Amino acid sequence: MRKIIFSLFLLSFLFSCKDTAKVKAIKNTKIAKDTVVKALENKADIAAEEFKNEFNILIPQNYRTFNNENPVTALNEKWIELYQESGEYFLGKANFKIEKGYSECSGDSVLSILSEKKVLLLMDLPKLKTGKIKSLKIDRDKIWPKEKLSFTFNNLNYTLRGDGKILSEEKVSTDDDKIEIFKKVEDYKLYLSVGNNPEKLLLAETSFNDTFVELLFAGDIDGDGKLDFIFGANRNYEEDRVILFLSSEAENGEAVKKVSEIAVQFDC
């Protein structure tokens, strides 16, 4: 009888140990999983914070006031504006008006930047020299995947090359009543090469919502004799996003460097 009781006790003890081991394994697995998730979240946060503006830029647009903050309040007469006149580009001291308003769409108060000139960009970069600047006439503003756009500036050859997946194509009407082919693209990358130097990745976007990257300006903003670029890179049709690249800030063998961007949302 004692042998039977002892055997039952031994079996119970062994199963208890086995169950405890399982519980410990499950707990350890859960901790490991949570650790991985947190690590991925932290990595994503770091990636999102990688780029910080070296100086602020603005475009003539309506800006929402959120938590009593509005980017327009930073704008003053020390800023420099890039504007177009008679097909030429100029840098001048910022000349603007700020108008208060209200957005029925979002329910937010807004500040609007108003300018008498055709201003492309406002920059908090007082060191820029004002006056006429050299620029290129842009005949084609979109560089679709598998396409290239080449031009020469001060005896240097520049080539922009697009890469990515084209999902579909359709004919659309532009603002100036022209018909063009619009392509739905994902995993887009835009590369730049100068002279015989290897091409470098300029910008990348995973997807677009009825939008695409546009070359808005190519010219010498910073006065170093090399091309600078301004791109429109709206990720959706309810956004105005502009990115500025300057050659004078380039490093590590690159031709230009991304120095600032502004993204304005006007969704409801």
Describe the structure.
The chain has 268 residues and is α+β, with helices and mostly antiparallel strands. The chain has three domains: 1-42; 55-133, no CATH class; 136-268. The protein has one helix at 2-48, and strands at residues 57-58, 62-64, 80-85, 88-93, 97-102, 109-114, 118-123, 131-133, 148-153, 156-173, 179-194, 200-207, 214-219, 228-232, 239-246, 257-265. The strands form four sheets. It has a five-stranded antiparallel β-sheet, with no helix packed on it. A four-stranded antiparallel β-sheet has the order 9-10-11-12, with no helix packed on it. A four-stranded antiparallel β-sheet has the order 13-14-15-16, with no helix packed on it. The protein starts with a helix and ends with a strand.
